[in-house]
Amino acid sequence: MESILLLQQEKKIVFSMLSNPLKTLTKKEWLLWLASLAAVIISNLATNDLDLLTLISALLGVTSLIFAAKGSVWAQFLMIVFCILYGIISFRFHYWGEMITYLGMTLPMAVWSAITWLQNPSEENENEVAIQTLNKKHIIGLIISTIIVTSIFYYILMWLDTPNIIFSTLSIVTSFVAASLTMLRSSYYAMGYAANDIVLIVLWVLASLENPAYIPVVVNFAIFLLNDMYGFVSWKKRELEHALIQ
């Protein structure tokens, strides 16, 4: 009987975590989301060579970041789709590092994060994931794993003769750290992604110098940077509120 009740309770929590995240957005968050969507659409339509795949991936990415700021597991589901689309975009420009990073690393880690977030709802609000404070074990493990992953991917990029290999390697470092912090449910996940956004802005500016069609990608990541900074502020605010309750 107890096992049945426990199973029912777990199902209730999962359903709560999967509830419509749009219902939890504040007026400020609605404004940020809609303004970001508008900026993405305008920047992509302004180019002479509209790439529908880039536009769709950017819209999904912005929405994912807004949901992530709310601690909604839907952010991870959207991130999975974004990784696939971004991997295709990177493949077309021969940014092998980006393609391998997002398809071979960020995507599976987003799946893992989705599972982890579903298993750890917040006590204050079951619609949100519980925030975890990093300990020494987490930090040491993150440093060691980052060094290993970066070393492996760097040699793969060299073998593939990847353009702008330094920035591609930096993208791997920041992507892995950001994805790991997301999986660990740390509020610093957003700072990791913000650092990755800066690297990607540089990376795609270099690509745009060869092909102006990639200018919208630069704008997209600039908007991502703004949303990631909001995500950090949002998680820190929620972390502070939880500490006051405790």
Automatic annotation (TrEMBL):
GO terms for molecular function: nicotinamide riboside transmembrane transporter activity. Signal peptide: none annotated. It comes from Anaerobutyricum hallii. Pfam families: NMN_transporter. One of its GO terms (cellular component) is plasma membrane. It is found in: Cell membrane. Its main location: membrane. Belongs to the nicotinamide ribonucleoside (NR) uptake permease (TC 4.B.1) family. This is Nicotinamide mononucleotide transporter. Keywords: Cell membrane, Membrane, Transmembrane, Transmembrane helix, Transport. The chain crosses the membrane at residues 30-46, 52-69, 74-93, 139-157, 163-181, 188-207, 213-233.
